[in-house]
Amino acid sequence: MIRILLIAFLAVAWAPATAQTVTGPDRPATFIVRELVQNIIVPAVALRPPQERAVLRQVEIRVEQGGPFPGPRAGVSNGKRLILLPDIFVLQLQGHVEATVYAEVSNQPHFAEWWLDYTLWRSPIFGRISDGPFYRGTAPKRPLLFAGMTENQADAFVTQYRATILGMFNAALTDILLHELGHHAIDRWYDSDRTPPTEARAIEREADAWATSAHEDLVNAYPNAGGYDMRNVAGRLFAIEFVYGLTRWRSTAQVGSGATHPPFVSRVSSAASVSGCAGIDAVIAGFCESIGERVEAMASQANAEASYRARAEEGESFAAYRLGQILLSRGDYENACAIMIEAGGRRAEHYNGWCFEFSYSGTSLPDATREQLATKAYEIGAEAGWADSIWGLRRLGAIP
Ligand SMILES: [Zn+2]
């Protein structure tokens, strides 16, 4: 979804297929994808015209363990049609659904954003970086534990909202797989490094349009495919918000960013105009309503800055940290340091270290003292599992 990789895969013996095969290690993400493909994708493909069906049945959906960050990709390699789905993406999508449902139910509209940021900075994708002797940090918590629930409370919550969580997750993953199948159906590809963004976006729109029509046909034929109500567009809205959240995070984290998918706002509004968010479930209806406000707030850097500033003024430390990141990206280091450190919260230690390291804090102190203070702050961040604190320790030579 994020980009099409034209990697030369090893030649794989080609065999005529009667349905999409799902391959991957015997792990939860593979089981989840396999079940969804059987229940939803196979019936959706069966509804396509014969020629298209023949193409789509050749597609192998490969769940990759520890695949590259962060998104699904489709491609053709040595004549083999593939959709590659990193397992971490599937599991993070699942967590994000749980976080979103909790955000609606607990009336904390920004909870899913807090959790996503928290988990991405500790993502196993950074495993190779944090694999040092002791700076491994604790494993990221699932959303409900991150929210402060006990295991028992979390299980009870999931039982209570099971239909909503699974319905939303199925709808979102269905939308993502249909989009990737759309690339195969229309046979339109691009190279994210070389194709001009306008052309890449046009191809993405075509894949979206194909997915929309395949989804409509599926809903008309099987309104309860996979045992869940497939009618509303919450799944697409959710999938878009999730992928957009990842892209935004990557651009502030500077882990590279690709903006090939049509801008968030136009994708959300075109998805919403397809069939609306007619109330099926109170939690999903609430999500549909609130996503509009979030779109408005994040539509531009200026909107995002104003929105984070307003939230920070109401005392939300996460918003202050994001505001600080925007100032950082503009080169306004002094204000960024002042805001982020004053805000406190979970990420403050890391930025404390950063501001000492680059001399925006403790300007009157000798260099060696500042470096010691930076190292100390990064150590606290690294113990908590923050990958960027570990990078800081590397820069300072405190760890190999
Ligand atoms: Zn795509």
The N- to C-terminal Cα distance equals 35 Å
**Spatial order of the strands forming the largest sheet:** 1-2-4-3
Unique ligands: zinc ion
Question: Given the C-alpha coordinates, what overall shape results?
Answer: globular
- Any low-confidence stretches, pLDDT <50, length ≥5? 1-16, 127-134, 254-262
Helices and strands in order, then pairings?
Elements: E1 21-23, H1 28-46, H2 50-56, E2 60-64, E3 73-77, E4 80-86, H3 87-105, H4 111-120, H5 143-146, H6 151-160, H7 162-186, H8 197-221, H9 234-253, H10 264-275, H11 282-298, H12 301-313, H13 317-329, H14 333-343, H15 348-357, H16 367-383, H17 387-395
Parallel strand pairs: 1-2, 2-4
Antiparallel strand pairs: 3-4
Helix pairs in contact: 1-3, 1-7, 1-8, 3-4, 3-7, 3-11, 7-8, 7-9, 9-10, 12-13, 13-14, 14-15, 15-16, 16-17
The protein binds zinc ion.
Residues 1, 179, 183, 204, 207 line the site of zinc ion.
Architecture overview:
The chain is mainly α. It folds into 2 domains: 21-88 and 162-298, no CATH class; 317-395. It has 17 helices and 4 strands. It has helices at 28-46, 50-56, 87-105, 111-120, 143-146, 151-160, 162-186, 197-221, 234-253, 264-275, 282-298, 301-313, 317-329, 333-343, 348-357, 367-383, 387-395, and strands at residues 21-23, 60-64, 73-77, 80-86. Strands 1-2-4-3 form a 4-stranded mixed beta sheet. β3 (73-77) and β4 form a beta hairpin. α9 (234-253) runs antiparallel to α10, α13 (317-329) runs antiparallel to α14 and α14 (333-343) runs antiparallel to α15 (348-357). The chain is globular and about 75 Å long. The two termini are 35 Å apart. Residues 1-16, 127-134 and 254-262 have low confidence and may be disordered. Bound molecules: zinc ion (ZN).
